[in-house]
Inverse folding.
């Protein structure tokens, strides 16, 4: 990319408790392949230079043999162990990705990404430093209190559901994670753009992805992903 290095961090260290399966969700079979296979395949065929795969400490050898080597994913240069929380896994991935100019962070449980999403998020990162894919919400959203009572109904015209991949200037997102780790912050960190927003006051560019870019979290998500996958192969 014009002499600038782009790397991707693919997160596959989750336990997937809501899937109610003994097999972690990223290794469940979807259309004949593991869920994780699909996003790695897209990154393999994209303009990304290298991929860092972050998985569970007990799954390193299995992932290398049964995912990376089996499918010949030559861009996956490192398979490393994740941490207790998602942000720990991202930070480990960031350290393993050094040095680079731009980094994309993606949840391996989102199998239906496309190369177009990767390109648009990367361009947003180049232009703005912080970028994420997502889609405008279609439902009415309620803010609910601890007793399950509605407190507010925000205008859905200004609301997006945030997906991955997310793209960043590497120095920017590394600094955001380092600042977060300096303190004992009791905040739920659900994605990486919020760290850039909170600790660096960095606004994030949003680009449209696809409503098909579902995160496989529950058995119902697997059924939906299967439908979308079949439509792609027709």
């Amino acid at each position: 990319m014009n002499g600038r290095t782009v790397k991707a961090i693919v997160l596959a260290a989750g336990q997937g408790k809501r899937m109610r399966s003994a097999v972690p969700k990223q290794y469940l079979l979807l259309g004949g392949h593991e869920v994780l296979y699909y996003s790695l395949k897209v990154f393999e065929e994209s303009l990304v230079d290298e991929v860092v795969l972050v998985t569970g400490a007990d799954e390193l050898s299995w992932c290398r043999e049964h995912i990376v080597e089996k499918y010949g994913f030559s861009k996956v240069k490192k398979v490393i162990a994740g941490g207790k929380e998602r942000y720990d896994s991202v930070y480990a991935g960031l350290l393993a990705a050094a040095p680079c100019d731009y980094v994309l962070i993606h949840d391996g449980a989102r199998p239906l990404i496309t190369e177009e999403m990767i390109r648009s998020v990367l361009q947003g990162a180049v232009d703005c430093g912080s970028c994420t894919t997502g889609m405008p919400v279609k439902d009415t959203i309620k803010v609910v209190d601890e007793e399950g009572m509605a407190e507010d109904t925000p205008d859905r015209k200004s609301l997006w559901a945030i997906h991955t991949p997310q793209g960043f200037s590497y120095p920017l997102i590394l600094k955001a994670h380092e600042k977060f780790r300096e303190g004992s912050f009791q905040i739920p960190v659900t994605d990486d753009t919020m760290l850039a927003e909170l600790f660096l006051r960095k606004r994030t560019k949003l680009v449209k992805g696809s409503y098909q870019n579902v995160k496989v979290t529950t058995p119902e998500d697997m059924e939906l992903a299967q439908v979308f996958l079949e439509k792609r192969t027709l």
